[in-house]
Structures are given as structure tokens and as C-alpha cells.
Amino acid sequence: MLRYRKESDSDRAEKLMQATNFPTKENLYELYCDLCGENFFVNEILFDRVTRAIRAGFENPFVCDDCRRESDEEAYF
Ligand SMILES: [Zn+2]
Predict the structure, then answer these.
(1) Residues, Cβ < 5 Å to ion ligand 1
(2) pLDDT in tens, 16-27
(3) CA distances from 38 to 21, 32, 35, 43, 46 (A)
(4) How far is the CA of 74 from the centre of ligand 1 (A)?
């Protein structure tokens, strides 16, 4: 049961993980892209993941879709 719930939660999270240039109902948290430096709005799950990584001493792991496409050799998320 727990396992099933976890999987469906993360499926849902992946679908919602679309950064936008403006705040939306889901995307209330502001992040900046590590590559182009532009501001984006993301949902709580992604924001939490990124801030936890930063707090753990990693560089900002958030990269916007455009930059990610350009640097697809590097595996972000
Ligand atoms: Zn970018």
C-alpha cells in the first residue's frame, strides 16, 4: 500500500513539474535557472527538492527546460 501510494505521488509530481515564467495555482515558488539566471515559478515539490539540494551543499540544480534541452548531456533530475 505504502509503495503504491509513493509511486502514484511521484507520477503526479512529475506531471506537475513544469516550471512557468509566471506564478500559477501550482507554481508558487520562485527559483532561478542555474544556467541562464532567469526566474521561474515551480511547485512545492520541486522547490523543496532544489532548496534541499542547495542546503546540502550542492549547486543550484534547477535548470529551465530551454537550458536543459541545450545541455542534455548533463542529467538534471
Ligand atoms: Zn535557463
Answers:
(1) 33, 35-36, 64, 67
(2) 568 999 999 999
(3) 9, 5, 8, 16, 16
(4) 14
> If you write DSSP's letter for every residue of 31-61 in order, what string do you get?
EE-TTT--EEEE-HHHHHHHHHHHHTT----
How many angstroms does the Cα of residue 2 sit away from the middle of ligand 1?
A: 36
For all residues of the chain together, what is the average pLDDT? 82
Task: Output the pLDDT for position 33.
Answer: 95
In this prediction, what percent of the chain has a pLDDT beyond 70? 70
Averaged pLDDT for residues 64-77: 73
d(CA 3, ligand 1 centre) in Å = 34
Backbone dihedral angles phi then psi of residue 75, each to the nearest 5 degrees: -95, 95
CA of 53 to the centre of ligand 1 (A): 18
